[in-house]
Amino acid sequence: MAWARVCLWAVCACALRVALATVYFQEEFLDGERWRNRWVPSTNDSRLGHFRLSSGKFYGHKEKDKGLQTTQNGRFYAISARFPPFSNKGRTLVLQYTVKHEQKMDCGGGYVKVFPAGLDQRTLGTKSPYYIMFGPDICGYDLMKVHVILQFKNEYHENKKSIKCKVDGFTHLYTLILRPDLSYEVKIDGQTIELGSIEYDWQLTSLRKAERRPRESWDSPGDWEKHFLDAGTGKPGDWNSELDGDWPGPMLQKPPYQDGLKPEGIDQDIWLHEKMRSTSYLTQYDLSEFENIGAIGLELWQVRSGTIFDNFLLTDDEEYAESFGKATWGQTKGPEKEMDDILTKEEVTRAREEEEEELLAGGFNEPQRFFQRFHRFHQHKEL
Ligand SMILES: *[C@@H]1O[C@H](CO)[C@@H](O)[C@H](O)[C@H]1NC(C)=O
Fold first, then answer.
1. Atom of ligand 1 nearest to the CA of 44
2. Which of 94, 138, 290, 294 has the CA that lies 20 to 30 A from 316?
3. From 44, 77, 122, 130, mutation site for ligand 1 pocket: most ligand atoms within 8 A of C-beta
4. pLDDT digit string (tens) for 295-306?
């Protein structure tokens, strides 16, 4: 009886969760070629590479694992899909997708970008402004990282902590969570790889701003510091832009009471200015808050093509994202590996058989063996 009640409760709780989740965008490419109605390729440059729908050489499920695959080597790619615009202000934002470098990526992007609703999909390119860039980027042995780049006031800010990405040929699930309390989390294959505070893990020196104390406290001892204005800009000689923020400008020369400044006695060259709380950050944070999220896309370069992108998700619900990850990547990872193992074994067997044939042929007739090998080499190249 108690057991049944627990079960019932669990089912209800789960249904409620899913019911509460807001899914802004979800794409599994399950309706054949109709994805072309939802995804707009950029035509900004005629040399942009083409995408096709494919589950690749090995997969867990031939149909369900179909995703956008890059098809041409040494190309830029640019494609995007729209959804009704939303703001993540005060809400969690989860960005998730799967990526599979079955060609064994040597150099190229495997990341996604989230764009403002104003994106012009037809001209999408390197210069198109984005809100978020997230996912793996590989180039040789030097670059194997997961980017988490956030736009703030038209500047892009990269995470300071370096996050290593997967470099094998299998499908991997990448998840980025941005929460309203300014915490973030990066997961790969459902495992937390990095987490922390957006305040501390991004290059935010340009966002740092001193905070003024409330007026009531102005005249308590220790609130005022002496500053000697230099004649030109009115900027105190000891003004430290790093700690004090940007110098607000010459307005400070206007006596007698300016914001946080007052002249000391009759000596107009000596000003007092309110002590700053130099280590404080903006309290009203808008980094990681995006007003008008309206598109998701791929805008990247690949030396060797073949990467498959699938199972895109934007939601405000971490648990929904987790269950969607389990239902997609979770189902495919095992069978995909098994299929790859079988194909690899078959290849090894075939190679061994060919070698044996060659040896047999070579034992009797050297020139013939050379010819066969030469012939096969050329057939291979034509493929
Ligand atoms: C479109 O292509 C041109 C020429 O390749 C390039 O200069 C421009 O930056 C591209 N536009 C965007 C939005 O990236």
1. 1
2. 138
3. 44
4. 999 999 999 999
Q: Going by CA atoms, what residue is nearest to atom 5 of ligand 1?
A: 45
Please tell me the CATH code under which domain 18-205+286-327 is placed. 2.60.120.200
Q: Does pLDDT of 69 surpass 90?
A: yes
- Whole-prediction pTM: 0.72
Q: Please say whether the dihedral angle defined by the alpha carbons of residues 190, 194, 200 and 205, taken in this order, is positive or negative.
A: negative
Radius of gyration from C-alpha coordinates of the chain: 29
Going by alpha carbons, the residue nearest to atom 7 of ligand 1 is 127
Please give the distance, rounded to the nearest whole angstrom, from the Cα atom of residue 121 to the centre of ligand 1: 12
Give, as one character, the DSSP assignment of residue 97: E
Which of 13-17, 51-55, 110-114 has the least mean pLDDT? 13-17
Domain ranges of the chain: 18-205+286-327, 211-276, 337-382
CB distance 43 to ligand 1 below 6 Å:
no
Cβ neighbours of residue 269 under 8 Å, at least 6 residues apart? 228, 229
Q: Is residue 205 very low, low, confident or very high in pLDDT (cuts 50, 70, 90)?
A: low
Question: In sequence order, which residues have a C-beta less than 8 Å from that of residue 11 and are 6 or more positions away?
Answer: none
